[in-house]
Amino acid sequence: MPLPSSARALKKPRLDDEVRFLRSWIEKPLHMGAVMPSGKLLARTMAHYVDVNSDAPVVELGPGTGAITSALVERGVDQKRLVLVEYNPGFCALLRDRYPQAKVVQGDAYRLRDTLWNVLSAPASAVVSGLPLVTKPMLTRLRLIRDAFTALAPGAPFVQFTYAVVPPIPKSLPGVSTEASERIWMNLPPARVWVYRKY
């Protein structure tokens, strides 16, 4: 039985985003964290760790087509608080269209200090990352989290998902607390959310 036109209309943006992701992955596989956008349950789990009552910026790294961005907005994060750091210029244009009140920064999240040096007006209340950390050398990962903590308010979360079984950043960093979500089996592939806080 064919889908009603309203159901087809709801499915179309998701299908379009999947095609965009696949095309970008084929062109530059090491720049993409996944072949497909994050699933809704994974995105909602990541958004859960963000304080909706704060006025401070929320930085999202590698938002792609905005699957996690959408979950942040649905959770109640004001678009004006969002600072979206995206490398792909096509995704930047899409994000500016979908989230006109957010600040979209075309730049390299792995050089976060340089990318954000004149962007944030206050320490961030969260950094939410969809970057493919496990494809990067450990020194690159550690530099990223160091730079993220520089941008964050004390105790604010750095939220990262991974498909890997092991944490994307070691749990034993000095002065950093770590927690992990349950494995999200409904995501394809299954994923886990890791949260790091520096005190």
TrEMBL record:
It comes from Bradyrhizobium zhengyangense. Keywords: Methyltransferase, RNA-binding, S-adenosyl-L-methionine, Transferase. One of its GO terms (molecular function) is rRNA (adenine-N6,N6-)-dimethyltransferase activity. It comes from the Bacteria. Pfam families: RrnaAD. CDD domains: AdoMet_MTases. This is Methyltransferase. The keyword Iron does not apply. The lineage of its organism: Bacteria, Pseudomonadati, Pseudomonadota, Alphaproteobacteria, Hyphomicrobiales. InterPro entries: KsgA/Erm (IPR001737), SAM-dependent_MTases_sf (IPR029063).
